[in-house]
Recover the amino acids of this structure.
């Protein structure tokens, strides 16, 4: 099977995930700036973080399938696994923002991001196993330093929220910093895949 | 008419169905793990089941239309019938999860899955009638054992929830087991259609 | 401009409209069949009607743009006008179902359907004006009896709900019958456009 | 990379944004016209305005990417920036309509429109920098009078809502008038881009 419809379905699901999060933002009851910041301030910040996270997944998904020609049943299910993990992001985002960065919601949010990062690696591995070691994707991904670093940062965030300063908020803030660092790492474009794209498109 | 836009519209509807179910998940009021499990534990499990169910329909829909070249008005309406049945899944899923597996919601959930399974068979039949007995789809589907088994399991689930141990929960758990068995049966990829795909793509 | 992206955007909007209506269905508080019928019975019926209405618009939209090659700015705006009217259907559907067929919500629902029917005729006219009297669409549409009948039935429904038996529900039921008749008229496939499609595809 | 999937994803996000706003419309509790106007009157007007605003962005986005062949990572992120600003429109629209045109919500709504207008200019600039001064888009956009006028009107609206008659509503109405003027300016089709499209398609 070609990748067209898998990409279209994934685009649809990711577009919905990234957009329905805004429905979880509570509209302020009052009409002043302090109402806005009090009711929606935290929510807007966490929404921005989750928006960029889902945007990163769309971006890398987009680039990955650019290097894939055919998909099998295993790839379809690995892809659905990734979409399932990401579909929980609006739920965990809403819990973090309603609890205003309480410990448990932040841990669950981190585990959600971690599950998506692992599901992404699984998807990548399933595709590379199918396409073989000489596939353009395998050469482009290489050692996949970024994917491994993401998992490490997610783990570090979850662990620090779990262990450091459980009564205060120090561990939680370290966790949020880890998640923001992952975002910053990915927003810098992945030159390896771009280079491979450039090479594979050059003769066409 | 070509199948492109029918597939795009179905992808859109299925992507929305699979994603908006997460909006029905209630965000816990408290901030502890027990709040999460108490408020959303059942909901997350039923959401996972429904997500995989809709994912299976997207998967088989995807593979079926891969073997179809042209669609008629009858196919469009049979397809809308399937989408209508599936569009009720978020509603019945929410009722099962809010009632925490009460008898009536589970029966209605089973009837919903049953209606989708029948609508799928209707769609398949309408397409095969149009394409003729020599069509690639007809050869690929064959006796459609899985489709018939799904209907049988759905029926068995509904009947056991209706009749067995109406005061306790035994019948309900047999029903949920039937639904999970359908999921397991389908997640194993359908080698018949894959083989047909392989053959029809090989000479191209 | 080609029609591809206009069709994709319209497919997206129509897929969302047809699916989010299910979010307006209230999940029953209790766990019995009478709770289901009492809380959601009317809602499910009106949802079915609106689902088929939006499905009809997707269907005819699909067939219409199959005969169109290029779109102008005027077509884009006429299309957005149609989508706006249809985007209000979930709102008016929810009002009819929450009020359980009160007079005013039914009148507003009828006006909503009427506005969509008029917006469709406007879109068709804008396209035909652009494509000229010899265009395949113009020949396929002909006198557009169905479009005119839909407007007449919508008007008749609105007027009977407004004037007949304002204290009872007779006028409301005549109105709902009119809306159901429109649905039946359209679900019978439009042989004129199919014939034109057949002719335009035959030599290809 | 080609622009196809970026366009498909943007279409999906814009289709969802434009449609979910209708979910924020509160269904009237009563069943009379005065209930409708009291509960949803303001909401429907603001919804219409926001619908047309998002429609304009879809329209211009559509036309812009018609003149673009390849996208880079920077373009993907600039596009996500625009989508993020637009994804907040349902939230600010709901606040304006629930507060019935209070000063602060109108200012925030104006800032939201302003951020989208700036994000659009950033996206345009990133694409033109990549494509070079001889690109069809650069020639089509020219001095981009409309983009600059939009930013000016947005700014004027925000400033008048902030400074003029803070206790009454005069400044707020001037602001809403500014936003409506932007809409009117854009609904008139952009003949420069159409002309370029016409020229670039003519020899094809």
């Amino acid at each position: 099977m070609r990748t067209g419809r898998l990409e279209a379905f994934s685009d649809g699901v990711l577009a919905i995930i990234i957009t329905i999060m805004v429905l979880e933002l509570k509209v302020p009851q009052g009409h002043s700036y302090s109402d806005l910041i009090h009711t929606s301030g935290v929510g807007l910040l966490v929404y921005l973080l989750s928006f960029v996270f889902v945007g990163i997944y769309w971006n890398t998904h987009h680039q990955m399938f650019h290097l894939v020609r055919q998909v099998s049943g295993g790839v379809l299910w690995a892809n659905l696994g990734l979409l399932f993990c990401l579909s929980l992001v609006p739920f965990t985002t809403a819990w973090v923002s309603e609890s205003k960065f309480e410990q448990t919601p932040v841990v669950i949010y981190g585990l959600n991001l971690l599950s998506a990062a692992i599901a992404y690696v699984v998807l990548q591995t399933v595709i590379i196993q199918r396409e073989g070691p000489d596939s353009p994707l395998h050469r482009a991904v290489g050692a996949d330093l970024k994917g491994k670093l993401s998992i490490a940062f997610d783990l570090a965030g979850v662990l620090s929220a779990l262990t450091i300063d459980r009564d205060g908020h120090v561990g939680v803030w370290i966790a949020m910093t880890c998640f923001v660092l992952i975002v910053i790492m990915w927003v810098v474009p992945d030159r390896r895949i771009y280079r491979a794209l450039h090479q594979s498109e050059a003769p066409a």
Q: What stands out?
A: The CA atoms of residues 23 and 189 of chain B lie 30 Å apart. The interface with chain A takes residues 7-8, 11-12, 14-16, 18-20, 22-23, 25, 27-28, 31-33, 35-36, 40, 48, 51-52, 55, 58-59, 62-63, 66, 187, 189-190, 194, 197 of chain B (CB under 8 Å). The mean pLDDT of chain B is 85. DSSP finds nine helices and no strands in chain B.
